[in-house]
Amino acid sequence: MKCQTPGCTGEHEPRAISHSVIHRQRTLVVHDVPADVCPDCGAVVVHEETILHLDHLLARKARSKRAELVFET
């Protein structure tokens, strides 16, 4: 997918990223989140189905005392 950042001519590539999110007044880091990343400018696109899965994961695991989660399918 072509990067949408103005002036960038890069092509997004699939990668696993670490994504931080604030959930219930806590900052959580979720590792191995699938995303498309532009190697030229670093722009990141996380698809809607991934965000929905993250919401489900956070709802299940937010009660944990750990601030680190791994994206599980």
Question: What this model shows, in words?
Answer:
With 73 residues, this protein is an alpha+beta fold. The protein has a domain at 16-34 and 46-70. Helix content is 19%, strand content 38%. It has 1 helix and 4 strands; from the N terminus they run βββαβ. Strands 1, 2, 3 and 4 form a 4-stranded mixed β-sheet that branches. The longest helix is centred in the last third of the chain and has 14 residues, at 48-61. The chain is elongated, with a radius of gyration of 14 Å. It starts with 12 loop residues before the first strand and ends with a strand.
Feature tags:
73 residues, alpha+beta, 4-stranded mixed sheet, 1 helix, 4 strands, elongated
Q: Major beta sheet, specifics?
A: 4 strands, mixed
So what's the overall shape? elongated
Total helical segments: 1
Q: Distance between the terminal alpha carbons, to the nearest Å?
A: 23 Å
Fraction of helical residues? 10-25%
Order of helices and strands: EEEHE
Low-confidence stretches: none
Task: Give me the count of strands.
Answer: 4
Averaging pLDDT over every residue, what do you get?
Answer: 86
Classify the secondary structure makeup into a structural class. alpha+beta
The rounded Rg comes to 14 Å
Residue share in β-strands: 35-45%
Q: What would you say about this model in short?
A:
The chain is an alpha+beta fold. It is 19% helix and 38% strand.
